[in-house]
Every structure is written in structure tokens, then in C-alpha cells.
Amino acid sequence: MTIVFWIFFALFFYAYFGYAIILYVITRFIPLKTKPELPHNTGEYPQVTLFITAYNELDILQKKIDNCHALDYPHDKLHIVFVTDGSNDGSDVFLSKIPGITVYHSQQRKGKINAMNRGMALVKTDIVVFTDANTELNTQAIKEIATCFFNPKVGCVAGRKRVVSDTRSGAAAAGEGLYWRFESWLKKLDARFFAPVGAVGELFSVRTSLFEPVPDDTILDDMVISFNIIKKGYLLTYEPQAIASETASFNMAEELKRKVRIAAGGWQTLFRSKQILNPFKYPRLAFQFFSHKVSRWTFAPWCFFLLLPLNVIIVLQNSSAAFWWIVLTFQLLFYLLAYVGKKGEASKRRVKLTFLPFYFVAINWATILGQVRYLKGNQPAAWDKAKRLQ
Questions:
Q1: What is the spatial distance between Cα 23 and Cα 189, in angstroms, rounded to a whole number?
Q2: pLDDT (tens digit, 9 = 90+) per residue, 139-180?
Q3: What CA–CA distance (Å, rounded) separates 262 from 188?
Q4: Given CA atoms 216, 217, 219, 225 in this order, what sign does their dihedral have?
Q5: What is the largest CA-CA distance in the chain?
Q6: What is the pTM of this model?
């Protein structure tokens, strides 16, 4: 039983920490055959479409428009397009009254990816930048992204997502903020090694000519679109100076809603983009995709939760083994802190020490629920938005 415990622990540790450690060592100390340097700005920026999908976002649209107008990019080369998907809150009417904004509205709600497919058929610029209505871009974001495309081998550029969180807001905000700081660091390592493993829907860009419509039931559109471009032989690169900021989930219930959907989307992506796991065709990316994403979507959460019952069995079989009693004590303490965090979230009596254990347990449980949802086929293309802090 001890062997099984250590195997599960090794698999869990590798998925969440081991891969990051290995990648850091490789990129820090081992010379790699890297991609060619991106050329510097020639002074002639390309025509760009800023593409924003929206569903009932009337209350935040003015803030988003102000952010679009504040972007430091030649205004005659930046085309702002909103694609409203079945909005019934007057979003399309509001947007249609604003000069310089193009609106493609559909009365029927079919989901974000359907809106993307519909809108992309009408885009005429060479470059399109996808972003969300509830995100704020830094002023240099479009310039930073456009500069990457001066390299003709680049087909897709992933921006950096930043979660604006405050530990006083609770476990969801603190946990999500910490998670994305770690992910941003890991994406930098991914990019140094070969490529970031997929883009983030809050901010990514593609050459319009390389975009191909994806099925309307696609959940992780950003990852599927970026993988499709890699399959065409183009590079996916990461631009950490192009930043999309958004507030954290309103509470843990809203964060779990997101994580369950993402986990279901992960399984869907795994089956639809399984070619990326071919180490003979994509030697570096296959290693990255399996280690960074597939491991977390599949076996890591199960390994994490099974460590406790395995530890109990080992102690019952050998009650005099002090080491295993210590391990069990630490596991029980971790779950106790998670439980206190859950109770604190409900009662608003929040203790910072409990935020991380509660968040980690919750998102792993959400991943398992997402697996079940995918296997049952219960994930709709159009889903309820997760509420976020104002």
C-alpha cells in the first residue's frame, strides 16, 4: 500500500509542482534551440480588429469602451467590434449609438464560440485581438501584441491574464489571484521552452487568415483555436506585457461554476486536440500539454483525494509507524483548514490561513465534477456567467 501511496503522491506532485520545477531547471541551466528573436517594431503597425463578445453586459459596457478608447494604438488602424450573443438588456442598442464601434447582434443566444465564428466571417483586418467585455487591457497591449506579428512565423499571440484580488474579499479572490500569478510565471517558462500551452480567452490574438471556425459546442475556444494554428505550422508565442485584468470571482460558488466548466472543456479539448500529444510530431509541446494541462484535468485530482484514505489504511496496517502518523496529521490539518475556510466563506468570518487550503480542495473537487459533466454530456455551449467582484 505504501508503494501505491508514493505513486499517487508522485503523480499529484508532478502535475502541480514537479513540472514547474523541471521546466525551471531546463530553461535556466540547459541551452535550448530557441525560436528566432522577434523583430523590433518597424514603425508600421498593422490593421487590427479588437473583437469583443458580450452577453447582457450593459452595466459594464461604458467602462469597456472607455478602456478601448484609451489604448495606445493608431486609431485609424484599430477597429472595435462587439458581437452580442442574444443579449436582451439593450446592449446592442447602446453600442450602436457610439461612433467608431461596429456591432454584430443576434437575437438568439447560441454561446460565445458561435458568436466568434459569426463575427470572424466579417473581419477584414489581417490581425484580430480577442478580449472579453469584463476585462481591462493595459494601454500598450495592442502594440505589444502587434509587434509579435512582425515575425511571419507567429500565428497566435497569448496575452497575460491578471486577476485583481484582495484577500479581504475571501478565499475565491485570494486563491484565484495566487493561482494566476503562478500560472503567469509558468507560462513564461512554457514560452521559453517552446510555447505557452494554449492562450487565455481574456486576451489573445491570431492572424485572421489562419482562423478556422470550430464546433459551436466548443468550451475552451482559446485553446482549440491556438492549437489549430500550431497544427498549421505557425508559432504560438506569449507576450506578458499585454495584460488583461479582471476582478476575481464573487465567491467560491461562482469560482466553482467556472472551474467545473473549464474541467469539462479540458476533457473535450483533450479528445479533440489529441494530435498535440503526439511526441513524434510535437516533441516539446506534447510534453508541455500533458504535464501542464492533461495531468491536472485527468488523474491529479483523484490522486490528491485518494492520498488520505491510503494514508489511513497504511496507519491501520502499521500503527507504530511514526512517519505515517505525521503524514496523516498534516493531511487532516490541511482538510480541517479547508473546512474552516468553507464555513468562514459562508458566515463571512474569514481567516486568511484557510484561504489556500479551501481553494485548493475546492478546485480539485470541481475538476472531478467537470469530468463527470463531460462524460454525461451535460455541458451546454451557452453557460451562465460567473459573477465577479465589482
A1: 6
A2: 999 999 999 999 999 999 999 999 886 555 566 677 778 888
A3: 22
A4: negative
A5: 76
A6: 0.89
Lookup: cell for 373: 459533466
Residue 24: all three cell numbers together: 525551471
Q: How far apart are CA 246 and CA 132, in angstroms?
A: 9
User: Radius of gyration (Cα) for the chain, nearest Å?
Assistant: 22
Residue 36 pLDDT level (bands cut at 50, 70, 90): very low
State which H helix or E strand residue 222 sits in. Answer: helix 221-231
Locate all alpha helices (DSSP H) within 86-170, ordered by sequence: 91-96, 112-120, 141-148
Angle at 104 between CA 100 and CA 105, to 5 degrees: 125
The mean of the pLDDT values for the chain is 89
SS3 90: coil
Residues contacting 101, CB < 8 A, separation 6+? 65, 80, 81, 82, 95
Q: Could you give the CA distance from residue 328 to residue 114 in angstroms, rounded to a whole number?
A: 49
CATH of domain 48-250: 3.90.550.10
Separation between Cα atoms, residue 235 and residue 330, nearest integer Å = 44
Would you say 379 and 241 are in contact if contact means Cβ atoms under 8 Å apart?
no
For the chain, domain boundaries: 48-250
Grid cell in block for residue 140: 500598450
Average pLDDT for 110-135: 93
| Distance in angstroms (rounded) separating the CA atoms of residues 79 and 280 | 41
Q: How many Cα atoms are found within 13 Å in the side-chain-facing hemisphere of 38?
A: 17
Element (H, E) at 179: helix 171-193
DSSP string, 223-250: HHHHHHHHHTT-EEEEEEEEEEEEEPBS
Closest by Cα among 292, 175, 271 to 219: 271
Return the closest-CA partner of residue 249 out of 155, 387, 376, 380: 387
Look at residues 130, 257, 149 and name the one whose alpha carbon lies nearest to residue 202.
Answer: 130
Strand partners, 103: 82
Query: In angstroms, what CA-CA distances link 138 with 172, 203, 389?
Result: 24, 11, 19
State the burial class of residue 26 (Cβ atoms within 10 Å of its Cβ: 0-12, 13-18, 19+): middle
Q: Are 141 and 244 in contact, with CB atoms under 8 Å apart?
A: yes
Of the candidates 108, 147, 130, the residue with the CA atom closest to the CA atom of residue 208: 130
